[in-house]
Amino acid sequence: MTLTQAVDAVPGMPEEPMRATPDPLSIDVRRRVSALARTSRLLVAVDYDGALAPVDSDVHPDRRPLPEAVRALRELAELPGTVCAVISARPVRDLAALSRLPGEVRLVGAHGTEFDTDVSTDPSAHGKAEALEVLRGRVEATAVLYMGGGDGEEPVFLHLSGADAGVRVGDAGEPSVAAHRVADTPAAAQLLAVLAAERRSW
Q1: Confidence (pTM)
Q2: What was the pLDDT predicted at 175?
């Protein structure tokens, strides 16, 4: 009998406690999600590359969004008073082909100048931040959640105020004006799922 078998055979020996999995969402992020879930008109906007879809081409060469993120966006878009959008540097046509998101999720491409509603350039939108403001006005949002990864999202975070929430996805070593952070795209997907669950029960 080996030493391990002998220890296992001793009655009353306590089992090794299971290690708790660290929560990818901080307490501050969860509190902000709870507040967002209770706004009357919520706009959820997400950058495609880095927030919805991983940017690691070696691990995810097809650049598809995480299934759990797609599922959460679909659930959010089906809730009353909730509008979801993906804002990207990619053209709308590429976004539609890659993301395979339901029609309820708005697509804004070409750095925020191309909207899927009529696939045309909005003259008032000259970037992602301006496109977000156009969407905010169209849906009369009382609060906005914007998640993005990379330095290109910083101007969008600067446009957020009041009840809005900006979440930077990715390396915590990179400086950001976003009020909140999550480590990676799986954590971003979990944030969306938690938001959907809380808003559904509100």
Answers
A1: 0.85
A2: 92
